[in-house]
Structures are given as structure tokens and as C-alpha cells.
Write a structure and sequence with these properties.
The chain has 215 residues and is mainly α. The protein has two domains: 4-74 and 151-206, no CATH class; 76-150, no CATH class. It has ten helices and four strands; from the N terminus they run E-E-H-E-H-E-H-H-H-H-H-H-H-H. The protein has helices spanning 27-40, 57-66, 76-87, 93-107, 111-119, 126-141, 143-147, 158-172, 181-195, 199-206, and strands spanning 4-7, 13-16, 50-53, 71-74. The strands form two sheets. It has a two-stranded antiparallel sheet with strand order 1-2. It has a two-stranded parallel ribbon with strand order 3-4. Strand 1 (4-7) and strand 2 form a beta hairpin. Helix 4 packs antiparallel against helix 5 (111-119) and helix 8 packs across helix 9. The longest helix is centred in the middle third of the chain and has 16 residues, at 126-141.
Amino acid sequence: MATGSSPGPGKQRHLQNRVGYASLCSIEEFRKRISTLAIKSGYLTASSRIFVSDGATWISNMVEDYFPDAIHVLDMFHLKHKIEMLFGIKAEGVAANIKDKALDACNAFNPQAIFRAVASWSTPEASKAIQQADLLTYIENNAMAIGNHKLVSIHGSGWIEKGVDLMISRRMKNRGMAWTQLGSSHIIPFAVLHYNKQWDVYWNKRKGQDSLVAV
């Protein structure tokens, strides 16, 4: 989560008040903890509330249940990737034309046009037909989140993926590493503390030095 961004060098931007959360827990428990973190981060007083997701059903349900007033937008990378996987990177002929139409509709944030393009393809392959049906369901379920791009200036979740990399992957996915569920449950809280720049604050409290503040 972040409360905004400021200009960085070149085209880069720096997130303001960036915080993250990770845990080994049930989806329902995770939903509750994320909503709590959002409120602590100023969600209730924010002038604009934007929720970016990869389109997973459980995340869309979480937005409806816990963030109903947020503008939910789908990271279009995930949709475009699904389209590329359906038609193939080197699609030819009719398949190539339909794929281009679908991708053009993605760039225009037009869910109806995306759906029509994908649905117009007649594939003789049973496996591709199943994949096509799954994609059409995905588009239907995320139609509003696709169209909502016209309301916001944030169109990707790259900074969220980077947060996952910094908070989890670099600590737990290095070469040769292997974790048990118990071991990872012990290390994740400390990775979150470090990512949120609360490492010194936490340990100072443990040492009874509450007055010290991390900078």
C-alpha cells in the first residue's frame, strides 16, 4: 500500500508511506488483516482510493466486501498475458488478427470489445476451447475493473510486484533455499518489519527503549 508518489529521477517515481503485509494464513484472515492495515494507513480519509489486482476471484470478492468504495482496476499485464497464451506468441492468420483486436481493445480499456474479439475465435482444439472459455469468464468477472482504468492514472501493479520481490522473494527465494511452512512462518514477520522500515522500532520496544524512533 502507498498513499501517493513523488517524482524521482527520469520517469521513476517514489512511493509515499509505502507499507506491505505478508503472512501464512487463511484467505479470510488475510482479508481482515489487509483491511486493518488499510485503515491504519489512512484509507478512510483518503480523497481517492484505488485497488489494483491481478483479477483473482478471491481478491475481487475482497474488494467488494472490504473496499466497496475503492476504484478496482485490473493490472492489464495479466489479461494481455492470458490473451498471448491463448493465441500464441507467433499467432498467424485469423488467430493473429483476432489477437491484435483483443490487445487493441485492452489498450482502450474496453471489456466488451475484448470479450467479443476473444469469443469470435473458433478453435478446433479442445484444450484451447477450455482455455478460451476460462479467459472469457475472467474478462466477464473483471469487466468493471478493466473499464475503471478510464477513471484513474494508475494502470499497472509493477510497484506491488516489486514489493513482493523486496519483502519476500529476495529473502526466501535465493538459490539453494528451501523452507518448511513452520520456518517460513517464523521469518516472514521479520521480512515484513524490514520492508516497512519498522525493524529498529520493533527491537527498541523489545529492549524497553520505546522513545527511540527509526529514521
